[in-house]
Design a protein that fits this description.
The complex is a heterodimer of chains A (255) and B (247). Chain A is an all-alpha fold and 255 residues long. Chain A has one domain: Orthogonal Bundle (MetI-like fold). Chain A is 82% helix and 0% strand. Chain A contains 10 helices and no strands. The longest helix of chain A is centred in the C-terminal third of the chain and has 39 residues. Chain A is globular, with a radius of gyration of 22 Å. Chain B is mainly α. Chain B contains 10 helices and no strands. In chain B, helix 3 runs antiparallel to helix 8. Chain B starts with a helix and ends with a helix. The chains are: A mainly alpha (255), B mainly alpha (247). At the A-B interface, helix 1, helix 4, helix 5, helix 8 and helix 9 of A face helix 1, helix 4, helix 5, helix 6 and helix 8 of B.
Chain lengths: 255, 247
């Protein structure tokens, strides 16, 4: 409880400092938080069309891109992770593909898919599949030898072996990858919207900047921060549920 | 050695697939030039001084950004990791700042810093800070209390413990953080160059190739070179970690 208080008093204190400085400086680039909140309210609550037309599609794209990447990453990762030979074939290729900055491929995706949702999804999926994939490989490799031997002795069916033994053993690693890729999805969503479309949070940000409306620009930035915080917190809660059977490990992720 | 040949085979298979896809009538013409065309263009570009200056600009800005990020994140990580009060106090702020994607700050940085290299360096630093900071903090958490107590018994002061015991034992973690940060910084760097119209850099090269003549082969040359820089950075840092901090 004291930790909680400590945490949020410092946070609140900084917001107050920002507010006072914003008032004193009266700089159009740095509006005080009160103005930002008012702008956000007018922008998204009083004009619900802005919310349903920009914020909702952005979040939908982000989540669907992330889900597609997760399904591909986990299934491919488990396959590769259980076969040393397959991994030998794929490893250098994966290392290279992972190192490509996904925004660099936006022009290619633009031509292949035309501007629009499918191009944005392609950008998000290509960008975030790697952390999930590589973590799943790691996780699938780390299955306990005793478990492998036991399952072999009992000759359990193949799907049961994958879903019942490999997947649970790999899940802590997989979740670490999912968390990294979720925050990356947010980045790529914004990037794909800066070029690809005329709707979404990213394009609204760009538009606010072009119209020199810095208060709205700040509102957009804050919204993205809140979104990132919320998504991460939600995933952590799910992870705690799903991995409740795991002995507590302090495997907090860094990214 | 077998792993190496297999790896080469894997890459060769990928190239063949790409070649077939690029030449197939399924895709719109010129959308995906096949590797044979792209590598021809790559050779041409690698001998052109203007392309080299784009690459040098990006790499230089990237290195500056990584050095600045290390200079900020490692000391802050040491403080946050060893003084619990500071850590709990700043936690909410950090948790809120971290998820703000650095690309969301592009409009702000453009307004404040203009179109020069300051913008992309600042944004890359912002993106690279977090992995280094968090890895430093976690490394201090993993610190063996026995080592600390031993040092204290021998009369080492608080600062002495921090620099002689904590920092060396945290170093492998910190280097992993730097490796992650370098890849992230590269992505941000190229994105900013692509979108914010900086005047030089690989991202700018890609942007120019796309918007002017629509040269997709040049776009892919830029992409391949950016990927190669990423691989080199990643492997280089991994090697440093293995060679010098193998304790």
């Amino acid at each position: 409880m004291t930790k909680f208080l400590q945490r949020w008093t410092v946070f609140a204190g900084l917001v107050v400092v920002w507010q006072v400085l914003g008032w004193l400086a009266d700089d159009p680039f740095f509006p005080p938080p009160s103005k930002i909140v008012v702008a956000a309210w007018e922008w998204w609550v009083l004009e619900p069309a802005n919310f349903t037309g920009h914020v909702v599609p952005s979040v939908v794209r982000l989540l669907s891109g992330w889900v597609i990447a997760s399904v591909i990453g986990v299934s491919l990762g488990l396959l590769l992770g259980r076969s040393d030979r397959a991994m030998e074939y794929a490893n250098p290729l994966l290392v290279f593909l992972r190192s490509i900055p996904p925004p660099a491929l936006v022009p290619v995706f633009l031509l292949l898919f035309k501007a629009g949702t499918s191009m944005q999804l392609a950008t998000i999926v290509f960008g975030v599949v790697w952390p999930v994939l590589l973590n799943s490989v790691d996780g699938a490799r780390s299955v306990d030898v005793t478990k492998v031997d036991t399952s072999a002795v009992f000759r359990i069916p193949r799907w049961q072996w994958v879903l019942g033994v490999v997947l649970p053993a790999a899940s802590p690693k997989i979740f670490a990858g999912l968390r990294v890729s979720l925050s990356l999805s947010l980045v790529l969503m914004v990037i794909s919207e800066l070029v690809g479309t005329d709707n979404g949070i990213g394009s609204q940000l760009m538009q606010a900047q072009r119209e020199f409306d810095y208060t709205r620009m700040w509102a957009g930035i804050v919204l993205l921060g809140v979104l990132g915080y919320g998504l991460n917190t939600a995933l952590l809660a799910v992870e705690r549920r799903v991995l409740a059977w795991q002995p507590r490990s302090r495997d907090e992720q860094h990214a | 050695m077998r792993a190496f040949t297999r790896g080469l085979l894997g890459i060769a298979g990928f190239l063949v697939l790409w070649e077939l896809l690029g030449r197939s009538p399924l895709l719109p013409a010129h959308a995906l030039p096949p590797p044979s065309v792209v590598f021809g263009e790559l050779v041409t570009q690698l001998t052109s001084p203007s392309f080299i200056s784009h690459v040098v600009a990006t790499v230089l800005a990237l290195l500056i950004a990584i050095v600045i990020a290390i200079a900020i994140a490692v000391p802050s990580g040491l403080v946050l990791g060893s003084v619990p009060a500071v850590r709990h106090g700043t936690r909410a702020v950090i948790e809120f700042l971290r998820p703000i994607p650095s690309v969301a700050l592009i409009p702000l940085a453009l307004v404040m810093l203009g179109f020069g290299p300051e913008t992309k360096i600042t944004l890359a630093v912002y993106a690279a800070l977090w992995p280094i900071l968090f890895n430093t903090i976690y490394a201090l958490d993993e610190l063996d209390p026995l080592l600390v107590d031993t040092a204290r018994v021998f009369g080492t002061g608080r600062l002495g413990v921090l620099f002689l015991v904590a920092l060396p034992s945290a170093l492998p973690f910190v280097l992993t953080g730097i490796r992650l940060a370098a890849t992230t910084a590269l992505i941000v760097m190229v994105s900013v160059e692509l979108m914010a119209g900086s005047q030089i850099g690989i991202g700018y090269f890609i942007m120019e190739a796309r918007s002017g003549p629509g040269r997709m082969d040049q776009v892919l040359v830029g992409t391949v070179v950016a990927g190669a820089i990423g691989v080199l950075l990643n492997n280089g840092l991994e090697r440093v970690r293995r060679r010098w901090v193998a304790w």
